Amino acid sequence: MSEVLLxxxxxxxxxxxxKKIEKYHIDLSxxxxxxxxxxxxxxDKCYVSCIFPENRYKCLxxxxxxLIGGSGYDIxxxxxxxxxxxxxxxxxGFTTRGCIRNCYFCFVPxxxxxxxxxxxxxxIWDGKSKELTLMDNNILALPEHFKEICAQLRKENLRxxxxxxxxxxxxxxxxxxxxxxxxxxxxxxxxxxDINYTKxxxxxxxxxxxxxxxxxxxxxYVYVGENDTFETVYPRLxxxxxxxxxxxxxxxxxxxxxxxxVALSKWTSLMGAFKYDFYDLLSKSDSLRIYAKYFPKGNxxxxxxxxxxxxxxxxxx
Length: 317
What we know:
Blueprint: E1 3-8, H1 16-27, E2 31-34, E3 45-49, E4 67-69, H2 81-84, E5 92-93, E6 96-97, H3 108-112, E7 116-117, E8 131-134, H4 143-156, E9 159-162, H5 173-180, E10 183-184, E11 188-191, H6 198-209, E12 218-224, H7 230-242, E13 246-251, H8 259-269, H9 278-284, H10 286-289, H11 305-313
Parallel strand pairs: 1-2, 1-3, 3-4, 5-8, 8-9, 9-10, 11-12, 12-13
Antiparallel strand pairs: 6-7
């Protein structure tokens, strides 16, 4: 019997790799201790996971004394096959790994490769919980598998959260009907990561509106990176608000303190605020008024002709 130490550097949600390691060693009758760096000297084995690159320095004390992995440390470090293949029933996990996209800000294709099926809800669900969180990065890229997962969710009467969001570009009427006939923990989430996706976003929203989409039923991740400007961010939020759908401003850490993005983040995140005109709140809200000096004056209109057409002429009621 061995003493095993598991160190979760920075994950705020269940760390799947460490949970697999824990089960592997418990099945061997080993003693497992979590997040107690002082136990390093007496541990027979130590495993460390680091998710965010800015926290890599926290791994230094474990180098040479532990197996260290995670996207924040080294995406090439893999678990041994006998541990990777373990299924842990914690109501949180993946039914697919990999992705068909190659977004510049995402490490998934490099770390996980091409998309493939790795299991179903019965590899994740404990058989008791009424809720399940699926972390699949692009499950709609495998439509038949997605339909199978939805059928299982209906059969077990589970509420699901597709936590990573869904790819609106792959949405069809068939897949939308699957989505809207299962139970969800939260709003159904998609991504509007670039203003160049505006036509595909409006196409997806029009499809959903024509097939039963309710007001404020979806939430869209709006990524903001180093190359974004007010001209590329605010119109995306305007469009979502026009369609009466919610937004979540995902600020890259390199630009997270930009006062424009802070203010827009407050607008999208404060309960009920997104239902109101931003410029109206900017002049009246105590929490937003302090940011007014950072924004263009007057009624902002995007220079993109297509966006102007959508925002001016589309009837989305």
